[in-house]
Design goal:
With about 230 residues, this protein is an alpha/beta fold. It has 9 helices and 7 strands. It has one domain: Rossmann fold, CATH 3.40.50.2020. Helices cover about 40% and strands about 15% of the residues. Strand 6, helix 9 and strand 7 form a beta-alpha-beta unit. Helix 4 packs across helix 5 and helix 5 runs parallel beside helix 7.
Length: about 230
């Protein structure tokens, strides 16, 4: 880096310090979005290495999927929750791209995910997306796609009905809230492809199940799932 730019960055960091999106501590120059300590100690699931992991089993008897995984375990008050809160509600899109990219590198090495040809983020209703300014699942998907060298498709699976937040709903009510809110538009280009459906956090799987019910209508499609985090059960 140019010495002048380095000095300028140091000056600005005095007033606008770069903070870890997980623990909120100052970052060193070589660190991006998340400090080395948090990156090392984050509770990884390694589900992408286990074909019959907890997420896969969640969908047994519900929908047919090829593979499923989550990057981290999510628990209330954890650094993972803080990081995702920064992404979803504080406009910190860089953390979604960065962690998505890290996750994509691991998925690309997995025999269960290395044949993915297209990534589809769980869509957000257009009115909500306009209000928030972005879809956090799309940001994560773009990060994963960069590392896996595949395209992101945001035009085929559409959310047509605005729904209430799922956060405080029961398992049954989560399903009722999303069972008929998605639809497909011009899906022929996905025939016979292995696609990866991406979301931020999975709890009951109701939203993802509803998405899969629509995507499964496409002839020959193979569907896998990847989320940034999954709730402890």
């Amino acid at each position: 880096m140019n010495p002048f730019l380095s000095i300028l960055n140091d000056f600005f960091s005095l007033f606008y310090p770069r903070l870890c999106m997980a623990c909120n501590k100052s970052l060193f120059k070589h660190e991006k979005c998340i400090c080395s300590h948090c990156q090392y100690h984050m509770p990884k699931t390694n589900f992408h290495l286990d074909k019959e992991n907890h997420i896969t089993q969640m969908f047994w008897g519900r929908v047919v999927i090829h593979s499923a995984a989550s990057y981290y375990f999510f628990s209330k008050g954890s650094n993972v929750q803080h990081m995702i809160h920064q992404l979803k509600y504080k406009g910190q899109k860089d953390i979604g791209l960065h962690i998505g990219s890290l996750y994509g590198k691991e998925l690309s090495k997995s025999p269960f995910f290395n044949t993915v040809e297209c990534i589809i983020p769980v869509p957000m209703h257009h009115k909500k997306q306009i209000k928030r300014g972005y879809n956090q699942s799309e940001i994560i998907a773009k990060g994963i796609a960069q590392s896996m060298n595949v395209e992101v498709d945001t035009g085929t699976l559409i959310k047509t009905t605005k729904t209430e937040s799922q956060t405080k709903k029961s398992k049954f009510n989560r399903w009722e809230n999303v069972k008929e809110v998605f639809e497909l538009r011009n899906p022929d280009h996905l025939q016979n492809k292995h696609i990866l459906l991406v979301d931020d956090v999975i709890t009951t799987g109701a939203t993802i199940e509803s998405c899969i019910n629509n995507l499964a209508k496409i002839p020959g499609i193979k569907i896998s799932i990847a989320t940034l985090a999954c709730a402890y059960h």
